[in-house]
Amino acid sequence: MPKSLSFRSGLGSVLFWSVISAAFIGPGTVTTCAMAGSRFGLDLLWALTFSTIGTIVLQEAAARITIASGLSLGQVVARSYGTGSRWIAGALLFSIVLGCAAYQAGNILGAVAGLSMILPVSPVWLTAGIGLVCIFLLWQGSTRLIANFLGVIVFVMGVAFAYVATRTDVSAGMFVKALVVPVATADSFVLVIGLIGTTIVPYNLFLASGLGKGQSLAEMRWGIGLAVLIGGLISMAILVTGTLVTGEFSFQQVADALANRVGGWSRRLFAFGLFAAGFTSALTAPMAAAVTSQSLLGWAGSSWRYRLVWLGVMGVGLMFGLMNARPVPVIIVVQAINGVLLPVVTIFLFRAVNDKKLIPEAYRNSGLQNLAMLVVVAVSLLFGGWNVWLAVQNWLK
User: Fold this and answer.
1) Quick check: 78 pLDDT over 80?
2) Where are the transmembrane segments (predicted)?
């Protein structure tokens, strides 16, 4: 730890930045990671290594922009493109809102799936209830306390997954090898980009940029590094636990795998944790879309445009829930969509963090940092582009 950073301030920074981990550990993470383990064993564990490191690299860059300039990522993007900035900002906002809306569909469906395992209530009524509570809290702005409480439940669920992972037949050698040796086949590409998209969440870059204000570089780097690493380890534990799931994948199968290794009580813990992950993220995604609109286009937090953004994102999630869509397929597609959108946001971040007019030299990317960001873009484009190509081929048949 840097000398300028005390243990107390370092621990406080980790807790402060844990909101990033809480934001990406939602139903999408549980579903995508567990399905990857169920279908491909440990073969795709390397994708979580890549995405965890990529998240740290990108989140650190986004937060460093704000520390260096006092401006959010959206404000830097808007100022970087001069007269054409309004169109650029609008296009970027559209891609972020699209990603948030896609996430929201998975968030609502995941939260409803979790509650359905506990309460004998129609999914339609559960969807309507969750939607109304989220809208009320977002309108009032009183989401922090509830989100923090549910975040603790998600963390406890993560500990349960970690415990189960240690009780599988996976050896330390197999685990370490899978962490660093890339293995991918054509039929695993959707899950690979899904694992990347569910960890390196595009809208979290704007969230990190806003959170970075007022912190020192040392506090920010320590906080992001450890908080994201913990989130990545939880995701890896979920994937390893998924290797215990046999047959057709479902949330009930995951709950049964937990119960067989930990005890029957873990079924309810998983169900409530799945609900908590979905509900917490259902509050985060619409707000992140609205905050991004505020950052890029300067809309006031009390304006009708600002509220229309998060209401639109919420509406998409409720629509899928009220249609009683099957949660697992929707969530997998959602993560893949966000993985495809990731390069778009990362390219803007790359340009912003190297902007000589707005970012002092001491805060701009080094050559190594630029290389790391370009690798994230290249890998995301490779797998995302391949998925788009496969989709086009299937459509043309």
Assistant:
1) no
2) 15-37, 44-67, 87-105, 117-139, 145-166, 178-203, 223-249, 269-292, 304-323, 330-351, 371-392
Residue type, 12: G
CA gap 359, 349 in Å, rounded:
12
How far is the CA of 206 from the CAs of 96, 202, 294, 301, in angstroms? 10, 8, 11, 15
CB 243 within 8 A of CB 161: no
Rounded percentage of the chain residues whose pLDDT exceeds 90: 10
pTM: 0.80
CATH code linked to domain 7-180+201-396: 1.20.1740.10
The 8 Å CB, 24+ separation contacts for 298-304 are 298/78
Distances (CA, A) of 345 to 56, 202, 204: 15, 6, 11
What's the CA gap between 52 and 223, in Å, rounded? 14
Q: Where are the domains of the chain?
A: 7-180+201-396
Q: Which helix (H) or strand (E) holds 77?
A: helix 73-80
Closest CA to 93 of 278, 313, 282: 313
Structure-token pair, residue 20: 């990033």
Q: Are 92 and 344 in contact (CB under 8 A)?
A: yes
**Distance in angstroms (rounded) separating the CA atoms of residues 327 and 354:** 40
